[in-house]
Structure formats: C-alpha cells, structure tokens
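Milestone M4 deliverable, item 7.
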Amino acid sequence: MGTTGAALGKTVEGAGEAAGTVKEGAVPGENTPGLVTSALNEYMEKRQKDFFFLALRSHASIVGARQATEAYDNGQLQMAATEQGKAFDDPDVQAALEKARKQARQ
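Output delivered:
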C-alpha cells in the first residue's frame, strides 16, 4: 500500500512539474507552482480517501478471493464462504491513511 501511494504522489507531482508554471511574470524552472500544479494538489487532497478506499477494497477483494480459493481447495467450504464474505467488508480508510503517513515520515 505504501509504495502505491508514494508512486501515485510522485506521478501527480511529476505531472504538475511537467505542466509548467502558468503564472503572470513567472520564470520557467523557478519552482513556483502554477495553476495546474495547484489544481492537481487540491484535487489529490480532496480525493485522497477515495483513492485509498479503492486500493484497500481491491486489496481486500484479491486477498479474500485467494483465501476462499485455498479453503475451497482444501475442502473447507464453511471457511471458504467466510473468507469470501470478508472481501465485501468496507476497509478502514482512516487507519490506512494514518499508517501510510507514518511510514512516509520514516
């Protein structure tokens, strides 16, 4: 999860830098954030929980499917049903965000 979030952050940061500075009187390469960079930053701030939710839900679905398949292969049908059901639980986005932020600071 941590590497995915970091990669997304670098991608958005790179997009902002590549867009250049759209500011009156700005000098190219001056590292002054322009309109595009500001818009991308604001978008990412407002959608951060949504992105994390999608990533966590995808991860839970994949893990749940794998565990259910393993249980089914081992003849443990009740366990397979339980693991499959866990894939539909909502992930704790706030806890995941806090964990990712903590890891990023290390």
